[in-house]
Specification:
- The structure is a single chain.
- This protein is of the alpha+beta class.
- It folds into 2 domains: 5-184 and 199-215 and 247-414, Ammonium transporter fold; 427-580, Alpha-Beta Plaits, CATH 3.30.70.120.
- Helices cover 52% and strands 7% of the residues.
- The protein has helices at 5-31, 38-65, 93-114, 121-144, 148-152, 160-178, 199-218, 238-268, 273-287, 296-320, 329-347, 365-394, 402-407, 409-414, 477-487, 534-545; strands spanning 227-229, 235-237, 466-473, 493-499, 509-510, 513-514, 520-529, 554-559.
- Strand 5 (509-510) and strand 6 (513-514) form a beta hairpin.
- The longest helix is centred in the middle third of the chain and has 31 residues, at 238-268.
């Protein structure tokens, strides 16, 4: 074979981008789950790739690309056989090998999100290995290794079925057998929202995945030289095909995101952020099977389908099936992998050697083949993964004990007190106020509000010590601090807390489920007063914190029995004088 530097470089670039998808999945899944499990999520994503790589080299590649028969490629330990027949033009073996390896690792990664926050780490490593060892390679042989589906004309360009639907189907079965997280459903079966701890991380993960998808889909052309067949039968330059793949991939993702945003806006009265992020991924998964054989119109339609499907399926899985999927992996990967594979039979234009789809004059033949392939792959994954999960459940155990789940997997499984050790609260993070009063339209004006009056019998004499505790909005902290300085209070203790009042926080939806009690970030400011009149402190605090809206805060006043200054031993009123007022 005469090797092409351009084609080889392109395949290696694609492999590097697909590998970097592991980073995207890692921080996406971590952001959409709770902080007490972040280290466990990181470790699982690290081990997906690390376990999958040697296993795929050991036997997986041979099972997938061997030529024993149309069902099973064959055993070729350490991938030492002759694979020249399946290598792309001008691409050497190891360039193609690493490209296929990173795809295998992606399929295993998908499962971790749906089973997050309650899976035993030992069991996770075992079933991740089984996916890379046999589950993915066998169905991959049918589709990409010259197996029986490929012989029928089944088309899955970059893996809507072979990668995403396989991973999503395994995720669905695993989450069902594993059971929901503690507290996910009430006694009547109504789902409760369990919020992820870092939406910023989740968004960054999605952007990384979107970027890397250009390698996932674009790299699957495995060539930048040569030509393929256009829809009209003419030659289509491979560089042009790659540009088309980039364009259809990007358009489907963008349209799906807009569709999900608008759909959730109508459905939940607010555009849902986390669901819109899932909409982006749904569009990418949807178009992956057909991106080389559709036009821009088909990509836009697929984006609309994906944007609607991801919301409806996530809600169905959560509310009807009672299956707890913390990151929406089933709705994103399984549902849209399935639909995207079927869409090849609808929107294929007939280019790149693929038959035309139903809407482009090709009839029902390709559509029927695509549906057969989807059903066959689901059956294979469902049987093998059900056996795998049930064996693990009844031997070493699939799920961690309840006390470990409650405390968090980071500590029990990995000895981490927190994946965020060293990040400490600083009052400087709360200085959002500009110093200017902002006019707000509240339900009550300051003048009309009931005045805060301290009864004359409670006005402290110069020896009385009083503690004032304030729960307030974070963005009012700097204004309160200046107000306290102006009335003569110079000492305070500030704590960042979470809480809510009788309103149970602002109404909020998370992934289509209403949050029962939203704990909002607040500041708790504590001051011990001796010389400054308490009434002055209260009035100054109310003026600084007032907006007229629910949530302005509360002020609590306590009598203090005594105070001891550690440095000097002074007690009572004297202990609070000087720099420690």
């Amino acid at each position: 074979m005469e090797f092409s530097a351009i084609n080889t470089t392109w395949v290696l670039v694609g492999a590097a981008l697909v590998f970097f998808m592991q980073a995207g999945f890692c921080i996406l899944e971590s952001g959409l789950t709770r902080a007490k499990n972040a280290g466990n999520i990181i470790m699982k994503n690290l081990m997906d790739f690390s376990i999958g790589t040697p296993i795929f080299w050991l036997v997986g590649f041979g099972i997938m690309f061997g030529s024993a028969n149309s069902i099973f490629g064959g055993f070729d330990f350490f991938s030492r056989g002759d694979y020249s027949a399946i290598l792309p033009d001008g691409v050497p073996f190891y360039a193609y090998f690493i490209f296929q390896t990173v795809f295998c690792a992606t399929a295993a990664t998908i499962v971790s999100g749906a089973m997050a926050e309650r899976t035993d780490f030992k069991a996770y490593c075992i079933y991740s290995a089984i996916i890379s060892l046999v589950v993915y390679p066998v169905s991959g042989h049918w589709i990409w290794g010259g197996g029986w589906l490929a012989e029928l004309g089944f088309h899955d360009f970059a893996g809507s079925c072979a990668v995403h639907m396989v991973g999503g189907c395994a995720a669905l079965i695993g989450a069902k057998i594993l059971g929901p997280r503690i507290g996910k459903y009430d006694k009547d079966g109504k789902p409760r929202a369990i919020l992820g701890h870092n939406l910023t991380m989740a968004a960054l993960g999605v952007f990384i995945l979107w970027f890397c998808w250009f390698g996932f889909n674009g790299g699957s052309t495995v060539a930048m030289e040569g030509a393929t067949t256009a829809a009209d039968g003419s030659d289509l330059f491979m560089g042009s095909l790659t540009g088309m793949v980039f364009s259809t991939t990007n358009l489907a993702a963008a349209v799906a995101t807009i569709t999900t945003m608008l759909f959730t806006w109508i459905r939940y009265k607010k555009p849902d952020v986390s669901m819109s992020l899932n909409g982006t991924l749904a569009g990418l998964v949807m178009v992956t099977a057909s991106t080389d054989c559709i036009d821009m119109y088909g990509a836009a339609i697929e984006g609309v389908i994906a944007g609607l499907a991801v919301v409806l399926v996530i809600e169905f899985i959560d509310k009807v099936c009672k299956i707890d999927d913390p990151v929406g992996a089933v709705g994103v990967h399984f549902a849209n992998g399935l639909l995207g594979t079927i869409c090849v039979g609808l929107f294929s234009t007939g280019q790149n050697g693929v038959d035309a789809g139903l809407f482009y004059g090709g009839g029902f033949k390709l559509l029927g083949i695509q549906c057969l392939g989807v059903i066959s792959v689901i059956a294979w994954v469902a049987v093998t993964m059900t056996i795998t999960f049930l064996v693990l459940k009844h031997t070493i155990g699939l799920r961690v004990p309840a006390e470990i789940e409650i405390k968090g997997l980071d500590y029990a499984e990995h000895g981490l007190a927190s994946a965020y050790a060293g990040f400490e609260f600083s009052a400087n993070d709360l200085t959002m106020d500009t110093g200017d009063d902002i006019e707000v339209f509240g339900s009550e004006s300051m003048d009309a509000a009931i005045p805060a009056v301290v009864k004359s019998s409670e006005i402290p004499d110069e020896n009385k010590i009083t503690k004032v505790e304030i729960l307030m909005k974070q963005n009012k902290f700097e204004k309160l601090k200046r107000a306290m300085n102006e009335v003569g209070v110079t000492g305070m203790t500030v704590t960042q807390v979470l809480g809510c009042g009788t309103q149970k926080g602002a109404p909020e939806y998370y992934r289509g489920v209403e949050v029962d009690m939203q704990l909002l970030p607040k500041c708790q400011v504590e001051m011990v007063i001796s010389k400054v009149p308490v009434a002055d402190v209260i009035q100054a605090a109310r003026k600084a914190l007032y907006t007229g809206h629910i949530g302005d805060g509360k002020i609590f006043v306590y009598d203090v029995e005594d105070v001891i200054k550690v440095r000097t031993g002074e007690t009572g009123f004297a202990a609070l004088q000087g720099a420690d007022d």
